[in-house]
Description:
Blueprint lengths: L2 E5 L4 H14 L2 E5 L9 H7 L8 E4 L2 H7 L5 H4 L2 E4 L17 E4 L8 H6 L4 E2 L6 H4 L3 H11 L9 H7 L16 H15 L8
Parallel strand pairs: 1-2, 1-5, 2-3, 4-5, 4-6
Helix pairs in contact: 1-2, 1-9
Enzyme class: transferase
Pfam families: SpoU_methylase (PF00588)
GO molecular function: methyltransferase activity
Amino acid sequence: MLNIVLFEPEIPANTGNIGRTCVVTGAHLHLIEPLGFSLDSKMLHRAGLGYWDNLNVTVYASWQDFLVRCGLADDAGLKRLHLLTKKAQRTYVQATYRDGDYLVFGKESSGIPEELLARYPQRCERIPMLPDETALANRESWQAHEQALHPDAEREDSPLLRQDICGNFIDTSDYRISALNLSNAAAVVLFEALRQTGFPGMDA
Length: 204
């Protein structure tokens, strides 16, 4: 069984859609608080339709609570993590997935925190996408918006910049602001992991 982990998800419809995908693939959904919605949300259940009651889902108070309860706090456990981020050098198709691995996705507004990416640089992976100049006609306004939301992103003491020096993350000057939405990204990576682990009907 594969595991989908949502770090502080904010949009109930995304979590509902991912929950539905987990049900039909036999994956376990893990939600790390704080959540941006109530688990009783009508939007959550509408997106999950009738599947939500069949979902294997666990909620955790924090990232550390998740690591401890899932037995991932040691070096062997950390090797089961795949942190999906726009800031990684390695792509998700370059990763090797095994039954029981955890695919971790960050919150919709800001992704996985840079402190976690810097702590686990070898566990970071990305989905290849077109550069902003190709994908976005209004990229300048998006960049201004991102800078307003994350004014410290270019600081020299940023964990991201320290990792860039080591070659673990994409140069911040090449940082993508456009991306798939959370439920699409989770589906893309989950189905590659399912293919590699021999899910019925897929050629490994």
